[in-house]
């Protein structure tokens, strides 16, 4: 186990008895390893698992060969091959793979070990892609286990968008390694449009070079348990990063994102905004946002915010923003979190203009979530998500104002 390790095994039996185990206090001290055995099986008491649905995620904790025969995930990358955007990536030592990626939990370590070959998407140097590069990943069955490592690399001066679109059913462990070279401008959008029997855990790790820009978006609607944890390291001078998220959890769904933005370079700029809506018994969303401004990150300007709209009784949203600042020479830093019900004044305004209550509620939710949808910049995806939001709301038609349920 690399980095900070305070487990009894690391301390030794006698030391563990003599000294209390000190929990990891900051996101930057989290240990990492490429070996699954170094992590052990999560119990739900660990800092990065305590809000997760470990019972339903348990199949992804097993380190074993996946079944032979029909693959758990079908990849549709024919269009990328035609455009020359795919790069051969065979073996764990392939170029770029592992350049910045470090597994921080057992699921990520298993995916690293069990997926020998990566899917490597590269945007050519100095060129702008007129159309987004869309990778369609379709799960072939909830009983099929699949592991994946995906590399997205934007070469210096390149401009483009890469979309990971997930559908079907699967038990899917996924690593996504994102490298934005100096001067590049990249947008990465991960859409989780799974069937309700899917279990999906994904770790996205990104580094942004000098004068480069990365917009990272996580959009989660479908799936039984969806855990997409993105981290972004603004390493270069004047690197910029935006991290946006949108989720809609229905009855029995667990949608989670633990977000980390690390300001490492000087004069970096960062913005994090995640929004979620929840309806139905057992609907659950978890958002943990960590921002670290490093010792040398002078001139940093950073802000993070999470907002959740709870539509019915029986739904729960957990929201935990954290901000760690190691230098006082910054332009600004802040964080905010809010979870609540419908705004009665907004409803009154709409109803006073002849709109019935159900339609008024629908318009309020759409207006709340569309702020994120409109940041995507891909008309095809924006239109599909607008339809998905409307479908979710009509599925829960007749939403009544919640009385006292805790959020």
From TrEMBL:
Show the InterPro entries listed in the entry: Fe-S_cluster_assembly_SufBD (IPR055346), SUF_FeS_clus_asmbl_SufBD_core (IPR000825), SUF_FeS_clus_asmbl_SufBD_sf (IPR037284), SUF_FeS_clus_asmbl_SufD (IPR011542)
Q: Where is the SUF system FeS cluster assembly SufBD core domain?
A: 141-368
User: One matching Pfam family, short form?
Assistant: SUFBD_core
Membership in a protein family: Belongs to the iron-sulfur cluster assembly SufBD family.
Q: What is this protein called?
A: Fe-S cluster assembly protein SufD
Q: Which species?
A: Agrococcus citreus
Organism ancestry: Bacteria, Bacillati, Actinomycetota, Actinomycetes, Micrococcales
Gene transcribed to yield this protein: sufD
């Amino acid at each position: 186990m690399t980095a900070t390790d305070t487990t009894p095994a690391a301390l030794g039996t006698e030391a563990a008895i003599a000294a209390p185990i000190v929990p990891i206090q900051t996101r930057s001290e989290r240990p990492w390893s490429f070996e699954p055995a170094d992590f052990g099986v999560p119990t739900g008491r660990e800092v990065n698992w305590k809000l997760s649905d470990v019972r339903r995620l348990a199949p992804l904790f097993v380190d074993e060969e996946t079944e032979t025969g029909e693959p758990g995930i079908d990849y549709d990358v024919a269009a990328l091959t035609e455009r020359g955007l795919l790069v051969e990536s065979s073996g764990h030592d392939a170029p770029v793979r592992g350049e910045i990626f470090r597994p921080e939990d057992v699921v990520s370590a298993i995916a690293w070990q069990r997926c020998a070959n990566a899917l490597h998407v590269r945007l050519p140097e100095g060129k702008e892609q007129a159309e987004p590069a869309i990778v369609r990943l379709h799960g072939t069955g909830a009983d099929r286990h699949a592991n994946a490592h995906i590399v997205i690399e934007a070469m210096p001066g390149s401009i483009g968008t890469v979309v990971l679109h997930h559908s079907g059913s699967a038990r899917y462990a996924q690593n996504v390694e994102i490298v934005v070279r100096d001067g590049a401008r990249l947008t990465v959008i991960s859409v989780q449009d799974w069937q309700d029997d899917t279990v999906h855990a994904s770790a996205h790790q990104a580094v942004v070079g000098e004068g480069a820009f990365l917009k990272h978006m996580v959009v989660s609607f479908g799936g039984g348990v969806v855990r997409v944890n993105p981290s972004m390291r603004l390493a270069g001078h004047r690197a910029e990063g935006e991290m946006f998220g949108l989720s809609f959890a229905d009855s029995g769904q667990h949608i989670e994102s633990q977000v980390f933005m690390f300001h490492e370079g000087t004069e970096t700029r960062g913005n994090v905004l995640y929004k979620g809506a929840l309806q139905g018994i057992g609907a659950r969303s978890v958002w943990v946002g960590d921002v670290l401004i490093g010792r040398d990150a002078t001139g940093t300007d950073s802000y993070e915010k999470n907002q959740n709209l709870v539509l019915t009784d029986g739904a729960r949203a957990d929201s935990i923003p954290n901000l760690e600042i190691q230098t006082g020479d910054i332009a600004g830093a802040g964080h905010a979190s809010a979870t609540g019900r419908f705004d009665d004044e907004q409803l009154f305004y709409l109803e006073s203009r002849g709109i019935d209550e159900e339609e008024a509620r629908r318009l309020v939710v759409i207006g709340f979530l569309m702020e994120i949808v409109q940041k995507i910049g891909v008309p095809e995806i924006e239109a599909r998500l607008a339809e998905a939001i409307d479908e979710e709301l009509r599925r829960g038609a007749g939403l009544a104002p919640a009385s006292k349920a805790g959020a």
